[in-house]
Amino acid sequence: FPIKLFLRKLTAALRTQLQSTEDDLGNLKMLYLLLPANLAFLYSFVLSRSVQVVYEGDILLRRGQRSAINCENCLWPKSRDGLVKVPINISSDFFTERLWIADALQEVSTLTCVRFVNRTTEADYVHIERGCWSYFGKIGGRQALGLMKNGCMDKGAIQHEMNHALGFIHEQARSDRDSFVKIMWEHVMAEQGNFGKVNSRNLGLPYDYASVMHYGAFDFSSTPGEPTIVPIPDPSVPIGQREGLSNLDVAKINKLYKCNCCSFVLPKHEGSFSSVNYPSPYPNNSHCLWLIRIPQNKVFLQFEAFDLQLSSDCSSDYVKIYNGNSKNSPVLLDKYCGKGPLPSLVASGSTMLIEFSSDDNVTATGFRRFK
Ligand SMILES: [Zn+2]
């Protein structure tokens, strides 16, 4: 196989493309994905000499931004209603995938103050096209974000790429990562930039093995079966999940964007949770959400204690439960208050959303759920 000729052809093709307009960069990035790993460095090189550099595998940085990984001016603005609106449009290449994208982004919106709105005339927006990469933070103007079937369209993968656009780096690139993982450099593929460490803002929140922003143990391994990342001290801790945002992923978005949200994710097969301060009385004006998301099967929820201020139509304090991952999902249990009987519910799928709300009046001890 004439490898030299192939390289020359490839370089020529890249050069030709680089002279074209920015809209064509999408094709370029696609090319990067299709390249064998040991040739990918070439593409990074050519690309870095033009308009952008590929950083950490799937993050694109603008020229000159390489070390500016601390996102200062790259956050999406917050409007007066406290919501952070991110205008998006989705390439017409996508059809059935639109539903998956909408579902993954809806989960972000449900749990944080970030809202994804259909772009109309906004100058700064995210254009979703084929690929598997994103820019870091808001870059201004139209910014592409790549997603595709077979590897980059899981709920967590969609959220991963969008999290980059919101201003998040990879979890294993955090400044404190050496206390939590060991990078096995001898097994890392040639383009070692994927495993760099940056002087990151960690928002005062702990390192999260369960983050959708964490690489998997075998990602970018040059040797089948040999890990590139090993958690320490316990190497068996799972990393690299793409089921969906972790509880800390949600906390980080809410902290970075100063959202006034009380939301939690319960990703385990079983577990329990309770209203704030339980068994002491819950606070006034408390509004919290719990998203239960299990890998498979149907969510089953059983309350073992329930005591909320009783009001007509439960308009004061209530628990409301949705059959899905958002407040737009069908209602499983409409506003419920008082002292019981204890609700027991089954979702039709693997997600269930529990909303708790109290007004500024009487409070009671709240609830505790057990599964
Ligand atoms: Zn990434």
Write the layout of secondary structure elements.
Layout lengths: L2 H16 L6 H10 L2 H12 L3 E4 L3 E4 L21 E7 L6 H15 L2 E5 L6 E6 L2 E3 L6 E6 L7 H12 L14 E3 L45 E3 L15 H10 L6 E4 L5 E3 L12 E7 L6 E8 L10 E5 L8 E6 L7 E3 L4 E7 L8 E5 L1
Bound molecules: zinc ion.
Helical residue percent?
A: 10-25%
- Give the ligands present: zinc ion
Q: How would you sum up the major sheet?
A: 7 strands, mixed
Give the beta-strand count.
18
Number of helices: 6
Q: What spatial order of strands do you see in the largest sheet? A: 1-2-6-7-5-3-4
Shape: globular
Let me know the average pLDDT: 81
Which percent band covers the strand fraction?
Answer: 15-25%
Poorly predicted runs: 1-53, 63-68
State the order of secondary-structure elements, H for helix, E for strand: HHHEEEHEEEEHEEHEEEEEEEEE
In terms of structural class, how would the helical and strand content be classed? Answer: alpha/beta
Rg estimate, integer Å: 23 Å
Distance between the termini: 60 Å
